[in-house]
Amino acid sequence: MHKIVFLDRETLAPQIRVRRPDFPHSFVEHERTATDEVVPRLAGATIAITNKVKLGAEALAQLPDLRLIAVAATGTDCVDKAACQARGILVSNIRGYAANTVPEHVFTLMLALRRSLIGYRDDVIAGEWQRSGQFCFFNHPLKDLAGSRIGIVGRGVLGQRVADIARAFRMEPVFAARKNTAAGPDTLGWDEMLATSDVITLHCPLTAETRGLIAMPEFRAMSRKPLLINTARGGLVDEHDLVRALDEGLISGAGFDVTDGEPPPSDHPLMRAANRSNFILTPHVAWASDEAQQVLADQLIDNIEAFVAGHPRHLVEA
Hints:
Helices cover 31% and strands 14% of the residues. The chain contains twelve helices and eleven strands.
């Protein structure tokens, strides 16, 4: 009989139903799991479920019964996949569940920044409307999305969906070629994308290659002072350089749903920038509409059932 252990059930909202698999098993849920609790909690487990709890080589070496790590997310950077491969442990992930929720969050951030909603809301609360003596006032920039170019980094499901929505707003979506590679027939060169985009949105994984993908050299190349949106992963952008770019007016604003290290400490550079009217930081919830979370939970158990049935799916290679 399989022993299944969910290490961080609290990463899914309480109203989301995680059904029990249709085979003999025991199922143990922990709301959250600290690093030193991983090995004792997974002792004897054949299947581990994790969203963000890290499973490194040292822990995996102490878990001889483990056969599957079912990641309750698309990103699998929390798992040492090379160590899994060496030990014959399969890793599965979730795919396609966020095709509505993440792009909608991207445009929520984009519209709020483009229309200066935070600044105007704060001004209204502070009594600026009454002091203006007019039916309206113009303390902050107001820009349309229509007619602007949106540079999309990442051509997967989310990047493609963002492009679809952008076209509905009459924006011009362009996909960026990988940094330091030539442009292709359907991609714009990296440098040209930086220089000509009015909005740049990130939809790529965090890897050794993409860490620090955007830093001061890239900010200085952004000729049109774009908005920068990151709903992908913290670490793709050098966060100290982001604050510096805001200070120097190299970008017109930024909307982030992720930080490098979550939750960020109170002295994190993005926390220090959070009170700016042209910067919005949300707590890694772009993926988390009720609808998307339920699709994720259902797919998670589908992946586990497929593994036990001898037809594993959604496997991630090292």
